[in-house]
Design goal:
The protein is an all-alpha fold. It has helices spanning about 10-35, 35-60, 65-85, 90-115, 140-155, 160-165, 170-175, 180-195, 200-220, 225-250, 255-270, 280-290. Helix 6 (about 160-165) crosses helix 8 (about 180-195) and helix 10 (about 225-250) crosses helix 11 (about 255-270).
């Protein structure tokens, strides 16, 4: 009995999305520990405006061009978020909600305008809302994998400093480390992964790629290195499973499926993780009573 051949396009998509899933889990771990997950959400919703603006200015549907526009918009939204937090009395959650809603509204208006004016090549840009993995080429997948690998490398080079700032920023500042610069660099890395994850999950769901795997991994360990590795593996498995399910059932959207697989892994972790799992709690109590 011979196994059916896997289509080339499916392999291309799986390779690119798997690299994004792994890197998103790793980068997101420090973002979650530093409590910067909501900032990533604001950046994610701003990317839609960046995609639309990049197309309107250049007329190009090239993925690097659109992702560059998305990155500029993400950085601009984060800069606006910082300004609101520093120069107003608005709380962090309210400031995030303002930036998120306004930037996403701008993106929808720009996309609607491009569609209404019938600009050649403008059709289909709305696919960035939920991802469009089926349109990925081998070159696109290589770009996504390369940027993801570079982001992981940057984090690895500064892991000690990033970990110190994540857990004890006051001590890091007293020790002479540039806490603000490290904090901004970490947020920038999260923004990079949000942008790179656009083809996989879209502007609406891409934040889940940098939040759910780290939160699931946190249930299993207290060590930062182990958490980063587990989060990366959870993101990778979720990505491959989502692509595989979408290949078997073509009408099944890949991005939402990836998120649902990651959510299922989080649910299992919440129940069965040895030290924090709810289902394992009676066993922990029983073991404690025996030692007593």
């Amino acid at each position: 009995m011979t196994l059916p051949a896997i289509p080339y396009n499916t392999l291309v998509v799986a390779a690119g999305v798997a690299a994004v899933g792994f890197a998103a889990g790793v980068i997101g771990s420090l973002g979650v520990l530093r409590r910067r997950a909501l900032a990533g959400d604001a950046a994610a919703h701003a990317t839609l405006a960046g995609v639309a603006a990049a197309f309107a200015v250049t007329g190009s549907r090239s993925l690097p061009v659109l992702l560059l526009g998305a990155f500029v918009a993400a950085v601009a939204s984060l800069g606006l978020l910082v300004l609101i937090r520093r120069h107003t009395r608005t709380r962090d959650d309210a400031a995030t909600a303002i930036v998120l809603g306004v930037s996403f509204g701008i993106g929808i208006v720009l996309l609607s305008g491009i569609t209404a004016r019938g600009i050649p090549g403008g059709g289909g840009l709305e696919q960035f809302l939920l991802g469009h993995t089926a349109a990925l080429t081998a070159g696109d997948a290589a770009i996504l994998a390369s940027v993801s690998a570079a982001a992981v490398l940057v984090l690895w080079l500064g892991l000690k400093e990033a970990t110190l700032v994540a857990f004890d920023p006051a001590f890091a500042a007293a020790s002479g480390w540039p806490v603000t610069a490290i904090d901004y660099a970490l947020v920038a890395l999260v923004a990079v992964m949000v942008v790179v994850g656009l083809p996989a999950a879209g502007a609406v769901l891409v934040t889940a790629l940098v939040v759910i795997p780290p939160v699931a991994a946190r249930q299993w360990t207290d060590r930062v290195g182990t958490m980063l590795l587990l989060a990366g593996l959870i993101g990778l498995v979720s990505a491959i499973a989502g692509v595989a399910a979408s290949a078997v059932m073509p009408r099944l959207a890949t991005g939402p499926t990836i998120v649902l697989v990651a959510a299922a892994i989080f649910g299992l972790s919440l129940l069965f993780a040895p030290r924090r799992g709810r289902a394992a709690r009676p066993l922990r109590l029983r073991g404690g009573s025996r030692r007593t």
